[in-house]
Structure formats: C-alpha cells, structure tokens
Specification:
Blueprint lengths: L9 E3 H8 L3 H9 L13 E3 L2 E5 H10 L4
Antiparallel strand pairs: 1-3, 2-3
Helix pairs in contact: 1-2
C-alpha cells in the first residue's frame, strides 16, 4: 500500500509562484538568472515540453536563499 503526500514533488511555474507567494514573472526571471548575488537568485528548473517543472526541494532551497528582511 502506497501513501500519497499532499505536497507535490514538482510544480509548474504558476504553481511554484503561488506556493512561494511570488509573481510568475519573478519565478521566470529566477529560472533564467545566472548571478547568485542578484535578485532574484537562480532557481533550478526542468524543461517540460511547453513549460518548466520546479522540484519542491529546489523551490524550498531557492526560498531559503532569498535575503532576510
């Protein structure tokens, strides 16, 4: 018997934006970013045909990399 968790393994760009409470354009800029010192810092993503998939672990690591207030 397998147990399903309520947390998805990966998010679409719009799902990642909603989960992180960021705009889709910020997530898109982060995917294309290369400079870790800039805002937003780079976010790892996988190509999925027409869009992107962001692994939950990568989204969490990206959120942790944001500067503190």
């Amino acid at each position: 018997m397998s147990v399903m968790t309520s947390t998805p393994m990966a998010f679409t760009l719009n799902e990642a934006a909603a989960t992180a409470r960021q705009s889709p354009s910020t997530i898109r800029r982060a995917i294309h970013a290369t400079d870790p010192a800039a805002f937003p810092p780079p976010l790892k993503a996988k190509r999925d045909g027409k869009g992107y998939l962001i692994l939950a672990a990568d989204l969490n690591a990206w959120l942790e990399s944001l500067p503190d207030a």
